[in-house]
Amino acid sequence: MANSYDLIVIGGGPGGYVAAIRAAQLGLRTAIVEREHLGGICLNWGCIPTKALLRSADVFRLAKHAKDFGLRIDGEVSFDAEALVKRSRAVAGRLNAGVEFLCKKNKIDVIWGEAALAAPGELRVAAPKGTTRPQFPRPKNILGEGVYSAKHIIVATGARPRALPGLEPDGERIWTYFEALLPPSMPKSLLVVGGGAIGVEFASFYSTFGAQATLVEALPQILPAEDAEIAALARKSFEKQGIKIITSAKLAKLDKTDDGVVATIAAESGEQRIEAERVISAVGVVPNSEGLGLEALGVKTDRGIIVIDGLCRTNVAGIYAIGDVAGPPMLAHKAEHEGVVCVEAIAGLSPHPIERTRIPACTYCHPQIASVGLTEAAAKAAGHEPKIGRFPYIANGKAIAMGETEGLVKTIFDAKSGRLLGAHLIGAEVTELIQGFVIAMNLETTEAELMETIFPHPTLSETMHESALDAFGRAIHI
What is the CB neighbour count within 10 angstroms for residue 456? Predict the structure, then answer.
């Protein structure tokens, strides 16, 4: 049958299209159902465009300090908000077209519309509802509304910004990350509600371009998922840059004014009144699991998250889930890996179930933050006797040459076995360095292998080596 497939993936985001490509490689007739844009939120409205904007912020920051590098820029360093956004959208557009090419190359059909599970192995696809967000052109030669069947169906519908009562986005004064990626001009003042990775990245970006940014977090530390020592260093750095941070605080009230908002923040020290031109709501996301017909088929969910096992199988045969809709950590690389694991299990291979403690996390603020594995507190809570190694960027030759001496690499080992339990980094390019520790953990590396490894000089990676050495009293350069 023309509308019959071995596998249909609902959602064309990172996890969805990677799952489809791997399925095609394994010889499965495959289709993707998408309603808005191939590449999903990450490629179009998240990971990629934000990194393009943050790269502009890095270049702007360096240009303002050109004198420190023996360079001269005649005149004031300035920026063009419209041009920043245009570059960011062009980067996203290029990758969006790349996903379309990959689908064509791998003979993956693209079905344009909104899918719902009509019965086991059967989907009904309706015309997509309108969206107010700008979109890239739809792929060519796509399929549309109709009934489609597949022995295996993967739900990869992602998530959307959470809206709190009193903080409902209006697209003008109260933004989600969608609007924050398309500023018509740079606000002079900004309130960011939520101190996780998304909130911190936007506070860092807008602060770099002159906004007086205030970051409010309900928990006692910003970046709650990170090691407490790293989060404290990040806070110190952000405050030095001029970002105001209020923790253990909640938004009690928000009033709109003619040119902005007035927020009442309830903190441990009492209420504070903050005026700002714009507010970014960065209080997390909720899974897109409604309207898929999951309940009628008996697919188990927990607060909207589809419950899966280590191979991404739901409790209903033939239905699987990957990515944000299947729960945290809500990261594109986790979704992609789940897609591969899921499809390889479907094809009868023997993939390893995902080990969640080996999923790296990266935050692309200034300075960057990256981590993998257990924090110091979690290692102790799990019954380990941790041995901690630390090495500061200020003692690294490459960091000094780069003018990036603010940073720390922290490693956590088990004292008895020498096993690497976790690594937590803050500083220049740590989002690139972290993968070395991820590979080490995946290979079940102990301190012996890390200490015996030759790290190239001069590189920032030497901080990783020295941190491992320091955990066992052997650091050379401190």
Answer: 9
